[in-house]
Design goal:
Number of domains: 1
CATH superfamily: Fumarylacetoacetase-like, C-terminal domain
Number of helices: 4
Low-confidence stretches: none
Helix content: 10-25%
Order of helices and strands: EHEEEEEEHHEEEHEEEE
Mean pLDDT: 96
Distance between the termini: 27 Å
Bound molecules: magnesium ion
CATH architecture: Alpha-Beta Complex
Radius of gyration: 16 Å
Strand order of the largest sheet: 2-1-11-5-6-8-3
CATH topology: Fumarylacetoacetate hydrolase, domain 2
Structural class: alpha+beta
């Protein structure tokens, strides 16, 4: 499986990092070794002194597809969960300045923490879905999918022009504003609608 992630998909977050609004989705990938499951702790790696959390809604792909039309894109994911796109912001900033790829900042081991997944038909409205991250019991990110720049369907249609989607692939759909640094000893908890999906420690 692979992890496809969308950058700059919530305008307020684009602004907080002083990036331009994208005219098409910004895509990067994480390898399967990036996946961190079952609320296992995240260990801060020693190559970065500025690891950021980014809470995101994550889609699970349910069948193989290429060149998927936007109007059929919803048929290609059947489950939804939450994830943290851990980012070495210090490395990313240097690589952005130099015009270099982001892999070292985005694709390292355990950089894609994921929750359990639920069938998407259990969600009342995918286009008006609240999600929240608390760190040490304080709200840091409060997002709603209604503020997304590129819809889930647009993302799937766009990505599948270039990359074949396969069953089990995960799509991180972008983070809202409020990103920031994690520290040793932090407790991360995240909710999708009113249900807790993530609850793990930073070590
Ligand atoms: Mg992200």
């Amino acid at each position: 499986m692979k992890v496809i992630a969308i950058g700059r998909n919530y305008a307020a977050h684009v602004k907080e990092l002083n990036n331009p609004l994208p005219s098409s989705p910004v895509i990067f990938m994480k390898p399967d070794t990036a996946v961190l499951k079952d609320n296992k702790p995240f260990y801060i790696p020693d190559f970065s002194s500025d690891i950021h959390y980014e809470l995101e809604v994550v889609l699970k792909v349910c069948k193989e597809g290429k060149h998927i039309a936007e109007k059929f894109a919803a048929n290609y994911f059947d489950e939804v969960g939450l994830g943290i796109d851990f980012t070495a912001r210090d490395i990313q900033t240097i690589h952005k300045e130099k015009g270099l790829p982001w892999e070292l900042a985005k694709s390292f081991d355990n950089s894609a923490a994921i929750s359990r997944f639920i069938p998407k038909d259990q969600i009342a409205d995918l286009n008006n879905l609240e999600f929240e991250l608390k760190i040490n019991n304080e709200t840091r990110q409060l997002g709603n999918t209604k503020n997304i720049l590129f819809s889930f369907e647009k993302i799937i249609a766009f990505v599948s022009q270039y990359i074949t989607l396969k069953k089990g692939d995960l799509i991180f759909t972008g983070t809202p504003e409020g990103v920031g640094q994690v520290h040793q000893g932090d407790k991360l908890e995240a909710w999708l609608a009113d249900e807790q999906f993530l609850n793990f420690d930073i070590k």
